[in-house]
Amino acid sequence: MTHVETAANDLYEGVPVVDFNHGVETPVLGHAQKMTELRELGPILRSSAAQGFWVLTDGEMVREMLADPNTFSSSATVATMPDPPYLWIPQMLDPPEHTAWRRLLAPYFSPGNLAKLDASVQSRCNDLLNEVVQQGGCAYRRDFADRYPTSIFLDMFGAPIEELPLFLTWEKQVMHATPDQDPDGSQQISAMMEVMGYFSELIDKRRKDPRDDIVSHSLTWEIDDKPIPTEQLLSFCLLMFLAGLDTVSIQLTYSTWHLATHPEDRRQIVENPGIIRTAVEEFLRLYSFVPPSRKVARDTEFHGVPMKKGEMVFATVSSPSHDPRMYPDPMRAQLDRQPNPHPAFGLGPHRCIGAALARRELVIAMEQWHQRIPNYRIKDGFVPLESGSMHGIKELELVFD
Amino acid sequence: MKVRINPDKCTGHGQCAANASKVFELDDLGYALPFDTVIDPQSEAQARLGAAACPERAIEILN
User: Chain A: nearest CA to B40, how far in angstroms?
Assistant: First the structure.
């Protein structure tokens, strides 16, 4: 059990100060537990880490912040980096620029378009499981989770699946370095530059030889009746790369960790696969991991706390997901929970555009996996850890029974 | 019972339709179709479920 420390009587604008950095490595559920402990100190705190930033621990306040892009801008979304030298489009845009991009992207992620992808999602899952089933066990991320949703996404986007190992390496450098590994964020920046270099070449290739993929289509898109400048297209590619590559992998790994360590829940899934849809939602809630921090756009008073333009506010979707006012006994998994209005995919204009695709991938994986591998556990002696500001379990070694 | 979806709050989570498919439908882009109507008594339970499933709290129930 971690212990939350504050300096005695240390207050900043009337709220307690904590030395809090979300990116540190912890055992599974350590990040969520930390947020629950911080909540005991107050709904709004001040972290002394990096340049200093506000920390929201209250679920309802997080919801409020995400619904107010005029006050809480997405121009910076990592609490320790208020002036990032990079741009992720459209994640770091505010309405109305953000709205224009979402209109262009929405058709690719629509229910109709996803129905067309369903057969290839099923078949990709099945192919990977054919390999995994024979092994008697696996390194879950390496052998399944990092390969399954990624191929679907890369295909849709237009980047070659053969490059997956390279993309995964970049992904880890950009999203999952701990503060120890990359204290000033320079490794992260240099990895992003490499990604953009790669996409710059890909764009050139698709200009000469367009295909039916998002990258090729993006070359024809217009905003305000003008083609989109290449620089912005690169910022868009960068975001698609980040958002599409390991979010679903992380979620799959949490769900599998849960089912490997809670045999009674796994038995429910195996004996009653009809419960899978609501179980997927419950795991999305319980293992919510995205931290949608925001930058204060104008001096404001937020629930009595004066926040200045330019300051960062840390938030994580696990706060509303684990809000005991909404979910009594929030850390207990209730696989048939309905309704389950969790914010794992975010709230407001930046609601995850890939949510429907992600859900479909999660349901299909849970169905197929448990038809073929109903019994499994974590390998003796293996200790799973989660790390990264958008935290995930790095690897999960399983043994099949 | 009257049910209204606030179109300004709908961001396309699709959970209304996922939980109450007989009451709520989505457009081609995954956003809720306009909804501002009186529900028949047999559909009330479903409508409440769909409304409660919305992460944005975009669905109002007015008795």
Answer: 21
